[in-house]
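Structure first, sequence second, as always.
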């Protein structure tokens, strides 16, 4: 099948069209020799995070089960935020189905196939969007300080829950907290000669690495983990 949503691993040079600041390219390629491209449809962050995390725990039954348990428990967060079961149950079951398939067959091929099935892949993204929204709203006292919209609820309805809406830093923080995962974002944006590294939450050990480039996220693979 064609991998149009999440690609196979490619050499890191494939995401650096000329001209690219040589120092940034050299810096990244030295640390991350390969990349997995994610479709630029406005959902790239959520899709990349879920794929990269599942891939990182694919060969660890305990870690995979822990993630599944976290997803199952997360339905309570949505309920407490006021979401009706009918609005998220199908998407929750899709995420659990994907994890179950990974548990049954700990092969990257299975994960890649599922994330390239549009309905399955989009359903996973939709659940992560709803979970992000629910986490933001159930921790409103903290997150309202980071949102410029009229109110947090409006921001979630208009910016977070809607498919194809690009994510903001506040959404990244919320999803990281909700799933209890650490995300390393490598950014080549800006005029600075050096690459910017963001660890969310700060001080934790990242389980996945993302390249942020022209408002888009792809998945990076560190040299030590390159297989």
């Amino acid at each position: 099948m064609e991998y149009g949503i999440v690609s196979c691993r490619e050499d890191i040079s494939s995401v650096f069209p000329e001209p690219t600041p040589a120092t940034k390219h050299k810096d990244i390629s030295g640390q991350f020799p390969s990349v997995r491209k994610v479709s630029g449809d406005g959902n790239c962050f959520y899709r990349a995070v879920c794929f990269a995390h599942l891939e990182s725990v694919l060969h660890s039954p305990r870690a995979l089960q822990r993630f599944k348990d976290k997803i199952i428990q997360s339905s309570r967060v949505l309920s407490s935020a006021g979401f009706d079961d009918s609005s998220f149950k199908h998407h929750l079951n899709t995420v659990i189905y994907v994890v179950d398939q990974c548990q049954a067959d700990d092969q990257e091929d299975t994960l890649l196939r599922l994330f390239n099935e549009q309905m399955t892949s989009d359903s996973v993204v939709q659940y992560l969007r709803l979970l992000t929204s629910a986490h933001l709203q159930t921790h409103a006292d903290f997150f309202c300080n980071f949102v410029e919209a009229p109110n947090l609820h409006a921001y979630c309805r208009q910016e977070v829950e809607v498919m194809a809406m690009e994510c903001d830093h506040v959404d990244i923080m919320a999803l990281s907290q909700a799933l209890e995962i650490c995300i390393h974002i490598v950014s080549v944006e800006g005029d600075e000669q050096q690459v910017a590294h963001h660890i969310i939450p700060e001080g934790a050990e990242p389980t996945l690495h993302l390249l942020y480039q022209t408002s888009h996220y792809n998945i990076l693979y560190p040299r030590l983990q390159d297989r």
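Margin note: The domain at 6-225 is CATH 1.20.1300.20 (3 helical TM bundles of succinate and fumarate reductases).
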